# Entry
Amino acid sequence: MEVTFEGSGLVDGPRLVAPFGFELEESAGSDHGATHWKIRLTVDERTAVGVYPVRVVTDSGVSNPILFAVGQLLQVTEVEPNNTPDGAQPIPNPVVVEGECSGNDLDFFRFSGRKGERIVVDAVCARVGSEVDPMIRLTTAGGRLVASADDSPGLVTDGYFTAVLPEDGAYILEFCDSRFAGKGRTGYRLLIGAVPFAGEVHPLALPRGQNTALELRGGTLSIDCLFALRTPSDPLCSMIYPTIPARSLGDPAWVDSELDVELPTPVPLGSPVAILEPADPAQQLPPLSPPVTILGRLSVAGERDEFAITAPPGSKYEVRVEAWGLGSALDGQLRVIGEDGNLLGESDDGRPSAGRRSGGGGRRGRAPTSPDPWFDLTIPEGQDEVKLVVTDLADRGGVGFTYRLVVEPAASSFRLTLEDGQVAVPRGGTALIPVTVTRSGYDGPIALDLRGIPEGSGVAVLPGTAPAGQTGGVVGLEAVAGGDPLVREIQVVGTGGDGQTVVASGTTVFAQQTLDVRGFGMSGTIPSYTRPTVSLTAAVTRPGPILLNPETRTLVVPQGCRVEAPLQIVRMIEEEATYQIIALSPPDGLSVEELEVDGSESTAEIEVTAAADATPGPYQVGLVARPSVSEGSPVAAALIEVEVVPPVSLELPEGEIAIAPAGTVAIDGKVARVEPFAGDVVVRLDDLPPGVTAEPVEIAADASEFTVTLRAAADAARTEARPRAVLTYELGDREGRVTHGPLNLKVLTRDAIEGQR
# Structure
């Protein structure tokens, strides 16, 4: 097929990156330019039918993903004028029509069918990134309605229908944008005709790297079918389109077909351990202990699925129904019932119902809000079992109403999400990947790392950290100068202090429609078509106009102090542009002064300030350079390790300190200050035993050594104590404090002390 990519920056050796095999050549006579790239593309015949994200990579960067459909049928282009039934465009059966629908356009198509023939009409718009909200309507040539569809559950704004044709003869298919908006990306893809098509795939998600089976039903299938397959083990893969030959299913309607089964959406890959709901509604699973994932479906309208969960009283869990976000038709509703039969709470659209919080409580919403419910469960005291009830909000059921019910401990969990799905690493420079942390009980530090970078590739990982209690972190990549143009799928992972490892996920929006109908008070955004991901695309590209090279990888910054970090500005081209160097979402407790460098400067000093109450520990500060004259994308980046430390530390003698009643002991110590801190320090001893005292000692800014004198009263009782040394100092208008110790202090008789000597 001849394919044209339109956008910007499509120069400097464009290359296609796709999750399928292909051959590519420049299209003959192509006037290739920066805004379009025309090629001839041959997709590997082993590629499964489906819709895949592809990107263009050049020596300047990595594009956003777009959706590219791979089909198995003859493909024709819509030809205008075809906006009346009499002027309907004749098409074969089966076929795929590639068309456009702008404004109030109506498109009509005519095809022939046989009585009893099973057909599907699938309007693929949002699923290929189009902003068209399709409506489809099929009639006989005489105008009798056969079937129609607008928004099919599970497909966001897309729609499909299947039908058994009532007679031999011609049929008319009408297509339009249901809102007659037709702006932005207005392309569509129509699958029409006698094609094997499954309306439901069960279970909703498959485990990675295992032999498993899919149950297919609905659509144009005449019976429920099973298909065995082995799923890929690639951890970077979040969903698949399996190749399912229709003739292998044993369905008499398709036993002679040479086509593969078409699926409306891909099949997600999920947890390696999941439990299938029994096929017989009369059977029930035994009580289950979390963590657990249950794969279920509402097979008929009004069905109510119940599951028992056993757990210790007071334990906390997250309960999620995953359906709509994975392409299911289910608008889930979750109820939680205690062992005593009382309703503990319920959740719909990620929010709880008001007044239903005893013993548990629903999460108050996620962004963006989803029809999938989410509930924060606390097992009530005196009970060790609860019942989870899954229903559809409108009591629907049947083909396509599948779900995953997930119950996970909430005591020490966290999630990682990515803002971007691509990263360009300049040769000789650094690229940064921001990571957002959502915490559910775990507040400790999270070590960030990258998977997928091969050894010897010339690209090195710069590990990062999401500091304790904070909601973000950054990890980096660094490429050697003169390296190869590497393109890889990589994965961000985070490891908590308890060993829990989490893969960062992302959500890419491909189609987003805006609702604006004057006179009806309607405005806002229609739900978008998104795809979850567990990886991002990294490519080595040529350097930008400048590079940022820190002279030191680790910067020590005392609490309440400001430290300068030397930075080299390497100019890759001769220019006099001015750049702003700013911090990329610096961690809480750290601030970075924005800096502007003009065309003559080759060095800069970045000022990093730690707040007086900043938590000591390692941090990463990401720096980016942007042109001062615009709000454009960063042209260079750098990652600096920052170690926040107390501004002073204390050295005291080790070992036992003994004092006799009515005696004194001198303790010599030393204060070490961390530049640039140079203030006075006061040392005192806390937690001294009764009868023992010590006056605080002030160490002047120009001194470091000191002596603290312990005095014991004559009636001081024999005892042991663990006093601590406390250093206090001024940080602006705040008092800083560092605790040292404890010391090993004993109050003994004089004879005992002499005996020890």
